[in-house]
């Protein structure tokens, strides 16, 4: 559900600052209105300017408030305030933002419109008196007499259905690294060089001794194997995050009110009579 919050300011700069703060709080700009939209003459005095006239509506104050669906009494008071130079800020907000919006407007130099209305009345301002300036009007008949007519306004509500964006939660996917110990067996070959001295007793023939008394070197390499570790990375699975958008039609049902009248005419007429539903009989 939405609510319309209004506030009045003496200074247009205060009103603009309040609008900026409302927008920073998350209220869309198109849901905020500034009236009058342009600067007006604020040099109102009881001698220099008369009370606001709905019938003339020279500056359109009354018409500018029409789409906000204020009661006629409030609408007339607000038009009078703008006629006297006040600046109105209105914001249509969701219920969860209403309290914050009210706090913002109260902090930026708002005026108490109820107190001002009481002051105007003490100065002679009569306030809303109904369409045409009076709820009971006089008119002259063709016979020259005066008739008084009572007016019962017939009101009717209209159902307006809008849309708003609602956060229903989110899905967050986060990747992180997990280390798992692993092991694997590998066979390794090892070489070892060993020395052995063995006793020998062998006679040499003539001429063999010369070959033995020479320097000799025998070198035998000792080799072995060791494990070599390397790693390769591969993709084993993918996680994809996306969303689908669907549209659906929802039927909104509510009750709207309207005013009806029932006429009971008990007057007696010669030769005919009228029942409660207006049918002529007799």
Could you please describe the fold and organization of this structure?
This protein is α+β, with helices and mostly antiparallel strands. It has a domain at 2-132: Alpha-Beta Plaits. Helix content is 20%, strand content 13%. The chain has helices at residues 12-24, 61-64, 72-83, 95-107, 113-122, 209-212, and strands at residues 2-9, 32-35, 87-94, 110-111, 136-140, 146-150, 273-274, 280-281. The strands form three sheets. Strands 2-3-1-4 form a four-stranded antiparallel β-sheet, sandwiched between helices. It is rod-shaped and about 175 Å long. It starts with a strand and ends with a strand. Mean pLDDT is 75; it is low at 42-49, 132-148 and 270-282.
Percent helix: 10-25%
Largest sheet: 4 strands, antiparallel
- Strand-residue proportion: 5-15%
Helical region count?
6
CATH topology label of the domain at 2-132: Alpha-Beta Plaits
- Give the overall form: rod-shaped
CATH architecture of the domain at 2-132: 2-Layer Sandwich
Indicate the radius of gyration in whole angstroms.
49 Å
Q: Residue ranges: pLDDT <50 for 5 or more in a row?
A: 42-49, 132-148, 270-282
Class per helix and strand makeup: alpha+beta
Order of helices and strands: EHEHHEHEHEEHEE
């Amino acid at each position: 559900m939405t609510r319309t919050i209004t506030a009045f300011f003496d200074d247009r700069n205060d009103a603009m600052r309040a609008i900026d703060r409302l927008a920073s709080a998350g209220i869309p700009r198109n849901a905020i209105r500034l009236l009058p939209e342009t600067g007006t003459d604020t040099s109102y005095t009881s001698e220099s300017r008369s009370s606001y006239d709905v019938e003339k509506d020279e500056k359109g104050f009354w018409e500018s408030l029409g789409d906000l669906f204020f009661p006629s009494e409030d609408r007339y008071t607000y038009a009078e305030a703008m006629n006297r130079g006040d600046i109105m800020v209105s914001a249509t907000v969701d219920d969860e933002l209403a309290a914050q919006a009210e706090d913002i407007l109260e902090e930026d130099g708002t005026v108490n419109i109820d107190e001002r209305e009481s002051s105007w009345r003490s100065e002679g301002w009569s306030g809303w008196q109904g369409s045409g300036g009076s709820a009971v009007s006089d008119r002259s008949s063709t016979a020259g007499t005066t008739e008084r007519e009572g007016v019962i306004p017939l009101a009717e509500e209209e159902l307006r259905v809008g849309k708003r964006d609602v956060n229903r939660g989110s899905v967050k996917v986060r990747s992180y690294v997990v280390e798992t110990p692993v092991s694997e067996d590998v066979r390794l070959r090892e070489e070892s060089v060993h020395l052995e001295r063995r006793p020998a007793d062998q006679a040499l023939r003539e001429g063999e001794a010369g070959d033995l008394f020479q320097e000799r070197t025998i070198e035998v390499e000792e080799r072995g194997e060791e494990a070599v570790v390397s790693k390769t990375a591969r993709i084993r699975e993918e996680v994809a995050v996306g969303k689908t958008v669907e549209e659906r039609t929802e039927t909104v049902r509510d009750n709207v009110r309207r005013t009806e009248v029932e006429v009971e005419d008990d007057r007696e007429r010669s030769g005919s009579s009228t029942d409660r539903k207006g049918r002529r009989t007799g």
